[in-house]
Specification:
Blueprint lengths: L1 E2 L5 E2 L3 H14 L5 E10 L11 E2 L1 E14 L4 E6 L4 E6 L13 H14 L7 E7 L9 H17 L2 E2 L1 H15 L8 H8 L4 E6 L4 E6 L4 E7 L2 E2 L6 H17 L13 H6 L7 H26 L2 H17 L6 H11 L4 E7 L6 E7 L3 H15 L7 H4 L6 E2 L3 E5 L6 E3 L5
Parallel strand pairs: 2-18, 6-8
Antiparallel strand pairs: 1-9, 3-5, 3-18, 4-10, 5-8, 6-7, 10-11, 12-15, 12-17, 13-16, 14-15
Length: 422
């Protein structure tokens, strides 16, 4: 479980320097350790990870950096530069709060790291975090924060964990027990295990990863719709519960089934009449068919059949829209616009849904122009000014920001920066 050395270290970059500067200004000292975790874009395999399915994410070159120092002061202080928020307390080791807050991602990760690595909870610490992952955009800023925190703890304590243990038993567990989001393992796994220039086919049942290079001449674009909703609001949990209900119904007829990963499309269709709640059947239909899509997409990418890979992305989006009900009008519009843009192979909603981002696969030579065209057409269709909130949606947890986008450079996962302080 515990390795002999901390993860690979890399030279300090602009975001690292910013984290050090923020830490110094806040705490009047240099941090003892600085580490990062990557955001991610999932190319195919959505809402399958918590049913032991297949996913195909890539890590972004946008990341979260955590700077920390452990001490013996009895004072615990966490600061988020991007939220301009902080929390400070003394003495007691905390328990998960009834209502999760932003600092739970950090504090929960530290608590679970200490449990798993078998080290004492610190007698005090200072933590500062900065990020270039757009928050609330469906690009897993939360997992990036968890992974950066765990990796910084590895560097600070000298106790490094096996990558999968860090992703699953520390970071995913923190999101479950502290942030109260019953997520699958995809986000934490790719943030820890990603390789430069590659996407990763991850088998969530066997927890095995196969890295695949993005074909030369092919780029991935991320377009942020400017619409976001909180996954903690309950819709994510409802869909997970619906899948679990579907499994229970299927097990009445096929007791060998452990998860929707074990169900074929033909098996599910033959049991449709047995479902008392057709919503559960709809949710299962997406997951059961998304797994073959993920495998077919990986094979198409490997063989260079980008047209086929793109069509699979469109199929996946349509299923998320009609069977899983997690797209919104804005992400649907971006996908429809992308279909009309020269050089685009395919597009789909990425992430948990209810807003967030769309990933677009495109010819590299046309990536910049395609991004510009998509954003211009999308902006002309939807006025995302805050004073039009009621026109867009009446949800209480709706957050609106300006639409934006960038070309993805598939990146390495977690790492520590070269030693900061002696």
């Amino acid at each position: 479980m515990v390795q002999s050395s901390v993860p690979v270290s890399r030279s300090r970059d602009e975001l690292c320097e910013k984290a050090i500067r923020v830490f110094q200004e806040k705490f009047q000292q240099l941090p003892a350790a600085v580490a990062c975790g990557a955001g991610r874009v999932n190319l195919i395999g959505e809402h399958t990870d918590y049913q032991e399915g297949y996913v195909f994410p890539a890590a972004l070159d946008r990341k979260t950096v955590v700077a920390l120092s452990l001490n013996d002061t009895g004072v615990y202080h966490i600061f988020s530069n991007d939220l301009q928020a902080e929390v400070k307390w003394e003495k007691a080791v905390p328990n998960p709060p009834a209502q999760p807050e932003w600092f739970c991602y950090i504090l929960g990760t530290i608590c679970l790291f200490c449990d798993v690595a078998k080290v004492d909870f610190p007698k005090g610490f200072n933590v500062a975090c900065v990020t270039s992952v757009p928050i609330g955009s469906g690009l897993s800023s939360s997992a990036a924060l968890e992974v950066a925190t765990a990796t910084a703890m590895e560097a600070a304590t000298g106790k490094a964990l096996e990558p999968l243990v860090k992703a699953r038993d520390v970071c995913q567990a923190a999101e479950h027990s502290w942030a109260k989001v019953p997520c699958g393992l995809m986000d934490q796994a790719i943030s820890v295990m990603a390789m430069d220039g590659c996407a990763m086919l991850f088998d969530c049942k066997n927890q095995a990863a196969v890295h695949s290079r993005i074909p030369d001449g092919t780029s991935i674009i991320v377009v942020n719709s400017g619409i976001s909703h909180s996954l903690v609001s309950g819709e994510y949990s409802k869909r997970r519960a619906s899948c679990e209900a579907a499994v229970k119904e299927i097990q009445k007829h096929h007791p060998q089934v452990h998860s929707l990963r074990d169900v074929t499309p033909e098996m599910l269709e033959s049991l449709k009449s047995h479902f008392s709640d057709l919503v559960d059947f709809k949710r299962a239909t997406h997951v059961v068919n998304e797994n073959p899509r993920a495998l077919a997409f990986a094979e198409a990418l490997k063989s260079g059949d980008l047209k086929k890979a793109g069509s699979i992305m469109y199929e996946g989006h349509e299923s998320l829209k009609t069977h899983y009900d997690v797209t919104v009008a804005q992400t649907d519009a971006i996908v429809d616009i992308a279909k009309t843009v020269e050089g685009v192979y395919g597009a789909r909603m990425t992430g948990g849904g209810f807003g967030g981002s769309v990933c677009v696969m495109v010819e590299s030579s046309k990536a910049d122009s395609a991004l510009k065209t998509i954003l211009e057409k999308y902006q002309s269709v939807y006025d995302l000014e805050l004073n039009n909130k009621e026109k867009m949606c009446d949800d209480d947890d709706l957050v609106l920001v300006d639409p934006s986008g960038f070309v993805v450079k598939p990146s390495i996962g977690a790492f520590v920066y070269h030693q900061i302080a002696s």
